[in-house]
Amino acid sequence: MTVINWKERLLPYEQVVEELKIKFKGIQKEYKNLQIHSPIESVEGRVKSIASILEKADKKNIPIEHVFDKIEDIAGVRIICRFVEDIEKVVSLIYQRDGEDLTIIEEEDYIKNTKKSGYRSYHITISYPIMTIEGRKDIKGEIQIRTLAMNFWATIEHSLRYKYNGNIPEELKERLHVCAEAAFKLDNEMTTIRDELLEAQKIVNLKNNLVNEILENLQNLYYIAKIEKVTQFNREFINLYNEGNIDKLFDFNRQLEVMTNLYKVRYN
Ligand code: 0O2
Average pLDDT over the chain, rounded to whole? Predict the structure, then answer.
């Protein structure tokens, strides 16, 4: 009988998950920095539990000594998107890296080819190289890309499958199917108001950045202007902030910048 040192064998998979998570979160940060909508809403990752590996091996008749070559989702990363269109963007970002820091082995579009259960998601199986003290190791992993709504459904269905040991009662299965379609309808509805939502997101980002700039300018004024003047500016800022008029906040910030420059000239 084959004895597996699970801790040692699973270590490279942990590294793959951590590295991929960092890389996808890096993409998310790049979009944030450019102040444009990120197709990546969040990133999760996990190494399959030993129990789950054994269960899958049993279900698929995989001999224990072959679990590491045959089971391709031991390392799993999940990318969650806001909109269905974002999934396509994420897939193309992954394709851009094919042959660079990862190799695509296969893909499965469960959005076009929805599973019988109602499951929707885009799966990409990759081979990912990691450097260990023994040299390079190529590890297989699965990237799942899905919307928030698809993820909500899959999480609920997954726990029900666990509860019923894989045999969800027929009636519940049907209701889950209805829920899957409702989630998909929600995704499609969201697409129709996508532009408006993106615009709203842009305004929120713009306002946040402007407020940060104003606070920085006020902070700088503390060093060079009279305290009464800065207190007056502070009060004015709070009133304008509560009013919520972004144009007035822009004008106020310009005024602060002029004041800061005037003080600088005076004291230099
Ligand atoms: P866990 O706990 O997420 O690791 P299959 O034979 O279809 O079960 P296969 O051929 O290995 O699986 O690959 P596939 O289809 O890409 O599915 C792998 C993973 O996709 C599953 O892993 C789930 O995470 C997810 N998935 C696939 N089908 C469904 C579904 O109907 N419902 C839910 N909720 N998730 C699904 P595991 O090993 O099942 O579980």
Answer: 93
Is the per-residue pLDDT at 267 higher than 70? no
Examine the residue annotation and report whether 142 is marked as an active-site residue of this protein. Answer: yes
Torsion of CA 127, 136, 63, 144, to 10 degrees: -30
Reported pTM:
0.83
Q: Assess whether pLDDT exceeds 80 at residue 268.
A: no
Q: Give the sheet arrangement for strand 122-132, strand by strand.
A: 42-47, 75-81, 135-147, 122-132, 103-109
CA of 108 from ligand 1 middle (Å) equals 11
Give the binding-site residues of ligand 1, using a 6 Å CB cut-off: 48, 52, 56, 73, 108, 115, 117, 119, 123, 154, 157-158
- pLDDT tens for 159-211 read 999 899 889 999 999 999 999 999 999 999 999 998 888 888 888 888 998 99
Q: Which of 14, 41, 142, 174 is catalytic?
A: 142
Supply 56's token pair.
Answer: 């899958």
260: nearest Cα among 224, 212, 208, 211: 224
CA of 45 to the centre of ligand 1 (A): 14
Q: Is the distance from CB of 40 to CB of 147 less than 8 angstroms?
A: no
Interior CA angle at 69 toward 96 and 14, to 5°? 65
Q: Which fold has domain 6-170?
A: Beta Polymerase; domain 2 (3.30.460)
Write down the domain spans for the chain.
Answer: 6-170, 196-267
What is the residue with the minimal CA distance to atom 16 of ligand 1? 123
